[in-house]
Design a protein that fits this description.
This protein is about 25% helix and about 25% strand.
Length: about 130
């Protein structure tokens, strides 16, 4: 994805792009600062969080991205999260796992039942959110 955006993205970190500005490898505090600073006139945050499930384990949130704390995820909002994976990565993946470390937030994700995963050019797939 970084190549298509013409950016060098952090391999295992969280990067934020706002216009031509790119913030690389942000921790929880950095994410909160950047997200909080970018609010439209109508009070909305125009953002989209792209995440790829951990291969084999199926974790979309948790374990490998601890920067995405419950506070950060609440700022982002459920509707602004999109999974991204190749079709081959999705083979055999019946559900994604979400472990935010906050039982109430985990329950909110599980109540949605499904999350959208972009798996190719203009091709999405709904994947079930596993119960932990």
């Amino acid at each position: 994805m970084g190549e298509h955006l013409d950016h060098d993205l952090t391999l295992l970190g969280i990067d934020v792009q706002h216009g031509k500005t790119v913030h690389n490898d942000l921790n929880e505090r950095g994410l909160i600062e950047v997200i909080s600073a970018h609010v439209n006139e109508d009070g909305q945050r125009p953002l989209l969080l792209l995440l790829s499930p951990m291969g084999g384990q199926g974790f979309l949130i948790g374990r490998g991205n601890l920067q995405l704390s419950p506070d950060v995820l609440r700022l982002i909002g459920h509707g602004n999260i999109l999974g991204v994976a190749t079709p081959s990565k999705l083979i055999g993946l019946e559900a994604v796992r979400i472990d935010t470390g906050d039982e109430d937030l985990d329950a909110e994700f599980q109540s949605k039942r499904f999350i959208k995963i972009l798996q190719g050019f203009r091709t999405t797939r709904l994947i079930r959110v596993a119960e932990l």
